[in-house]
Amino acid sequence: MYVPPLRPPSHDDSYISGEVTIDPSAAIAPGVLLQASPDSRIIIGAGVCIGMGCILHAFEGTLEIEPGANLGAGVLVLGKGKIGANACIGSTATILNASVEPQQVVLPGSLVGDKSRIVVTRPTVVDVDTINETASPASDEATNGDRPPPMNIPPPTPSEPEPTDAASSPPPTSQKVYGQAQLNRMLSTMFPHRQALNRPLQDGQSPSDQP
């Protein structure tokens, strides 16, 4: 914030009007204006330092500067209120009907307590389609919440293989021995009365009954 330069006052005196109480230990620079309107008063505590060109105007109440407070050059304090102990008010700051907490710092050129500027808030217009799109996920969640939980379906059991009938299966084929026919012919020539190898017997006969 732009802070205008301060010019030293043309005279070294301070102007005091109305009911003003100043502690002897307070330091007041030249060109200070202390004015209390009727039914109002100004109280300046011990160790207060007021810079040059400050204006303190009390009206409709009491304006009190507590001990140890510091007011920079060109500070304007109007109305009623209290500057807390050891507070620091920057130069060219303006305080209107407000109080400053103890040990609080007010930046130079600040404006404190101005209630004349009213901020008008306009109602926010929201599109209906936007509201519906925003509300649709919530409705979907509510619909999903009303659905019953899925039933636990047991997994299908594997079918057992059907037993095969041994009678229906074909008989195993006998493996053919290489040279068996030649061996049988040779044996029948050498032993004509001997039964050939692997010759099937008729039912009810023994090898001795064969011719």
Topology order in helix (H) and strand (E) letters: EEEEEEEEEEEEEEEHH
The number of strands is 15
CATH homologous superfamily classification of one domain: Hexapeptide repeat proteins
Helix share, percent? 10-25%
Top CATH class of one domain: Mainly Beta
Helical stretch tally: 2
N- to C-terminal distance: 143 Å
The name of the CATH architecture of one domain is 3 Solenoid
**How do the strands of the widest beta sheet line up side by side?**
1-4-7-10-13-15
Organism: Chroogloeocystis siderophila 5.2 s.c.1
Protein name: Transferase
InterPro entries: Trimer_LpxA-like_sf (IPR011004)
GO molecular function: structural constituent of carboxysome shell
Explain this structure:
The strands form three sheets. Strands 1-4-7-10-13-15 form a six-stranded parallel β-sheet, with no helix packed on it. Strands 3-6-9-12-14 form a five-stranded parallel β-sheet, with no helix packed on it. The chain has 211 residues and is α/β, with parallel strands linked by helices. Mean pLDDT is 76; it is low at 203-211. The protein is built from two helices and 15 strands. It has helices at 128-146, 180-190, and strands spanning 15-17, 19-22, 27-28, 33-36, 41-44, 49-50, 55-58, 62-65, 70-71, 76-78, 81-83, 88-89, 94-96, 105-106, 111-112. The chain has a domain at 16-110: 3 Solenoid (UDP N-Acetylglucosamine Acyltransferase, domain 1).
